[in-house]
Design goal:
Layout (H helix, E strand, L loop, with lengths): L16 H17 L4 H20 L4 H21 L4 H13 L4
């Protein structure tokens, strides 16, 4: 099935606070709709909240923004790949996403 939020993942040209808020809201809504992947959505929403806080407080250097964007996209890709995997593989992906940090 895959993750419901993939259509709301911002691209680099729209990667900013408003797009991140929209994405986070999509994650939170998807928790209610796709209970089987709720942990993946919650982790992505939590990481997105951290980005929103960072971007809201201080304008970021373009190199840091690019690295954050690429890291953000890699976390979403890891979650998307895990969505249809075995429970053991999902737990491994959840742990990897939970341990991820931004720059």
């Amino acid at each position: 099935m895959g993750l419901l939020i993939l259509g709301s993942v911002p691209d680099y040209s729209t990667f900013g606070t408003n797009a991140l808020i929209t994405f986070r809201n999509s994650c939170v809504e998807s928790i209610r709709v796709d209970r089987g992947n709720a942990a993946l959505y919650r982790l992505l929403a939590d990481h997105t909240d951290r980005l929103i806080d960072a971007y809201h407080q201080v304008p970021l250097d373009s190199d840091i923004a690019r690295k954050d964007f690429e890291h953000f996209r890699s976390l979403v890709a890891a979650a998307a790949n895990a969505a249809d995997q075995t429970a053991e593989q999902q737990v491994e992906a959840l742990n990897s996403i939970a341990a991820a940090d931004f720059f």
